[in-house]
Design brief:
The protein is α/β, with parallel strands linked by helices. It has one domain: Rossmann fold. It has 5 helices and 6 strands; from the N terminus they run βαβββααβαβα. The protein has a 6-stranded mixed β-sheet with strand order 2-3-1-4-5-6, with helices on both faces. It is globular and about 65 Å long. It starts with 9 loop residues before the first strand and ends in an 8-residue tail after the last helix. Bound molecules: guanosine-5'-diphosphate and magnesium ion. The site of magnesium ion has 4 residues, from helix 1.
Length: 184
Amino acid sequence: MFTIKSIPKVHNLTIALVGDTGVGKTALMKQLTADKFTVKHVPSEIGAYYALYIDSNYGVVLFNVYEYNSIVDLPQKMDKFDGALVMFSVNDSDTFASVPGNCAYFDIECIYTVLAGNKTDIECQEVSQRMVQNGLSSWNLGKGYRKDIQNIEYHGISAKNMDNAKKPFLTLAQFFIKKDLQFI
Ligand SMILES: Nc1nc2c(ncn2[C@@H]2O[C@H](COP(=O)(O)OP(=O)(O)O)[C@@H](O)[C@H]2O)c(=O)[nH]1
Ligand SMILES: [Mg+2]
C-alpha cells in the first residue's frame, strides 16, 4: 500500500507581457519554456500564450503568460491578470518611449508591474541603466494613479544569453507568493 505524503503545491500566476514589437518577448518566453533562442522575428498572435513552470522553495510556480505588442491589444476585462511584465529593448530608445504609457495603464488597473530592458548582451546600448532610473523617478503619470509607480522594479535582461532572464518572474513571484521565495 502506498500513501501520498504531500501533494506539491502549484501557484498559478497570470501575467500580461507587453512591449513594442521586436523587443524580444517571444524570444524570452521560448528560451524559458523551450530552451531555444529564436533568431528570426516572427510576428506573434495577439495574446500568444506560454506556460512557464519554475520550481521554488514554496512549490512550483506556473506563470500563465500572454504576449501583447501594445496595451491596445489587451482584453477589455483585465481581471484575469495578476501582474504585468512591461518590456523594452535597451538597444532601441523608441521602445523605451512606450514604457511610461504602458506602466501607467497597468497602474490605473491596479496591476502590479515589473519592468525589463532586454538585449543587454548588445554592446552599444541606446538606453542606459541611469536613463531607466531617471525615468522611473521622474515620469509624471498624472492624477489618480496609485503613486507607487516609482517603486516599479527594473531588471536588465538578455533573452539571448539568459542573463537575469528569470529575474522579472522572481520579482513577480515574490510579490504574489512570498517575499523570500527563491527559484530552485
Ligand atoms: N541580441 C539580442 N537579440 C534578441 C534578444 N531577444 C530577442 N532578440 C532578437 O530580437 C528580434 C525580435 O525578437 P522577438 O522575440 O520576435 O520580439 P517580440 O516582437 O517582442 O516577440 C529577433 O530577431 C530576436 O532574435 C536578446 O536578448 N539579444
Ligand atoms: Mg512576439
